[in-house]
Specification:
This protein is an alpha/beta fold. Among the domains are: 276-410; 412-479; 487-581, Helix Hairpins (Orthogonal Bundle), CATH 1.10.287.70. The protein is built from nine helices and 49 strands. It has a 21-stranded mixed sheet that branches. Strands 11, 14, 17, 20, 23, 26, 29, 32, 35, 38, 41, 44 and 45 form a 13-stranded parallel sheet that branches. Strand 2 and strand 3 (24-25) form a beta hairpin. Helix 5 (433-458) packs antiparallel against helix 6, helix 7 crosses helix 8 and helix 7 (487-511) runs antiparallel to helix 9 (554-581). It is rod-shaped. It starts with 6 loop residues before the first strand and ends with a helix.
Length: 582
């Protein structure tokens, strides 16, 4: 049976119809399906049974077998009316099957408040070719419920408050037309729930307060039309949930306050168009939630105030559109945005996460990690390979950046250095110059250590010169001036270097045959010390009045001191000017 027909015609013939399983009907329903131009698209013959005959069978408690039948204007509401029952009184239907059947109604095919007993219930390959369909408040007691490959031409489908039992529900490969699909308060038991490859036409789909039990739930490769799909307050058990390669329409996708269980949740390669997507205030005990290679679309995407404390969440290689993305005040075991393109504002002020993986991402707008009204508790963060075209709002101390990067287990020194360099440039662009200095220091420290390790690894004998070079840079560039980021430290280093040189030049005349010609040999120790300090000062500062000059070994010391003095004063000037000019 085809779905895309424009009109149809049913003719009841007097000739007998025999079903493939041998059941005989006195009349045959000949059904023709047409396109807009009245061209016949399909033709089917089925056994014809009158609805009143079915009501009698139901009343007698007999088995209902409608396989290969055409059923017109079936309504349990009418059955209750005929038998003087209450409007919501349950009606028992035994061993129901309607495979390859066709249901036709002007307004409504009504199975509401029906109780399906004695095994599996099957509507496989059935077609509901006209009118709304309702299974509201129905109960499927024992076996599987099979709507595989069904056609619901009128998309107004009501499974509100339906109890599917524990046998599983199968709507796989079904086609549902435009209209509202209502599964509010439905109970799906502990069996598997299959909407895989199902086509939902335009219109709202509601699973509000639905309970999916512990079975697997699959919307894999489903196509959802334009309209809101709402899982608000729904509950999932321990089974896996799959929306892999599902195509969502332009309406809102709402998973707010949903309780997810312990299974894996798969949105890999799913496509969200321009509707907003919300997982706000949802919960998941533990497991994995994956959006790998998903296309998020241009709507807002939000996980605000959700609780996934033991859940690994991955958006690896997902493509985000122009909407705002927010993970504000959400807890994760880990959150990975690896290799994503972040095209708009991202609020990553999570409440808690063991790992935030931002490696290999492209940032085109703003990432916000700065704590606002609560702490951002992240144990490890990875910026390696980031291409920063936008800005990161992050605080060196409040976010504890140094520890976040140094606790990385799987990144090299070069990768850590590159992350600090990226942050250094970011802090410069955002005007956080003190944080820029701190990031620059860590960048240079990791770079120096990486150069040392790589040099020794390449040639062990090169340690003879690699270590002295490393120690020189460590002492002069790092310890003495923090890579020219601290004028005060450089000034303190200037003073201590000068005093060290004074002591050296004061002691040397007692060891070697050397002296300063302006110091009398019979002068007191204090006078000798102060005069040595004077000589050292004019040498250190390259003043050179000419009243004092070294003799002997001190000439070499004085030459070295002059170079050190020039270097240290230049070092101080650079560090001071760098601070002032910014």
């Amino acid at each position: 049976m085809i779905f895309d027909f424009f009109s149809y015609k049913v003719k009841i013939r007097d000739n007998e119809f025999i079903t493939p399983d041998g059941k005989k009907y006195p009349n045959t329903a000949a059904i023709s399906f047409f396109d807009k131009n009245r061209k016949e698209l399909s033709y089917v013959e089925l056994g014809y049974t009158d609805a009143n005959n079915l009501y009698e069978l139901i009343k007698k408690g007999e088995i209902i077998n409608l396989d290969y039948c055409y059923v017109e204007e079936f309504s349990l509401s009418k059955y209750r009316q005929i038998n003087n029952l209450e409007k919501e009184e349950l009606v028992t239907i035994k061993a129901f099957t309607a495979k390859n059947s066709v249901f036709d109604a002007i307004e409504l095919t009504d199975f509401s408040f029906g109780v399906f007993q004695d095994g599996n219930v099957s509507f496989q390959n059935a077609g509901f070719i006209h009118g709304r369909v309702s299974f509201s408040s129905s109960v499927f007691e024992d076996g599987k419920v099979n709507f595989n490959s069904c056609i619901f031409k009128n998309g107004n489908l009501n499974f509100n408050d339906t109890n599917f039992g524990h046998g599983g529900v199968n709507l796989k490969n079904s086609v549902i037309g435009d209209g509202n699909k209502d599964f509010q308060y439905a109970y799906f038991g502990n069996g598997d729930v299959l909407f895989a490859n199902t086509v939902f036409g335009d219109g709202d789909i509601s699973f509000i307060n639905a309970n999916f039990g512990n079975g697997d739930v699959s919307f894999k490769v489903a196509i959802i039309g334009n309209g809101k799909i709402d899982f608000h307050y729904a509950t999932f058990g321990e089974g896996d949930i799959s929306f892999e390669r599902t195509e969502f329409g332009a309406g809102r996708v709402d998973f707010r306050t949903v309780e997810f269980g312990n299974g894996k949740i798969n949105f890999n390669r799913a496509e969200f168009k321009n509707g907003d997507v919300s997982f706000d205030e949802s919960e998941m005990l533990e497991g994995k939630l994956s959006f790998k290679n998903a296309n998020i679309g241009d709507g807002d995407f939000s996980f605000q105030n959700s609780q996934f404390p033991k859940t690994e969440v991955s958006f690896e290689k997902a493509l985000f559109g122009a909407g705002v993305v927010s993970f504000y005040n959400t807890s994760f075991s880990s959150l990975s945005l690896k290799s994503c393109q972040l095209n708009n504002y991202f609020d990553l002020r999570v409440s808690e996460a063991s790992l935030l993986d931002l490696s290999d991402i492209v940032v085109r707008d703003i990432i916000d990690l700065t704590p606002h009204d609560s702490n951002v508790k992240i144990k490890e963060i990875n910026f390696s390979g980031m291409r920063l075209l936008g800005r990161i709002y992050i605080d060196w101390r409040a976010n504890n950046i140094k520890q976040l990067i140094y606790c990385q287990q799987n990144t090299s020194l070069w990768m850590k250095a590159e992350q600090f360099r990226t942050l250094k440039q970011n802090f410069n662009a955002t005007g956080r110059y003190d944080d820029e200095d701190l990031a620059y220091i860590e960048f240079k420290r990791n770079e120096s250590l990486a150069i040392l390790n790589d040099g020794i690894k390449e040639n062990k004998n090169s340690a003879i010169w690699h270590y002295p070079v490393y120690w020189f840079k460590l002492w002069v560039f790092d310890k003495m001036g923090l890579y020219a980021t601290s004028p005060m430290r450089v000034l303190v280093s200037v003073v201590f270097t000068y005093l060290a040189l004074v002591v050296i030049q004061f002691i040397l005349p007692f060891i070697f045959n050397t002296n300063i010609n302006c110091i009398a040999q019979d002068a007191s120790l204090w006078t000798k010390f102060t005069d040595t300090a004077y000589f050292s000062a004019i040498t250190y500062l390259t003043i050179g009045y000419g009243d004092c000059s070294p003799v002997g070994v001190l000439r070499f010391v004085a030459g070295i001191e002059g170079f050190i003095g020039v270097f240290m004063m230049a070092y101080f000037t650079v560090a001071f000017a760098r601070k002032v000019l910014r």
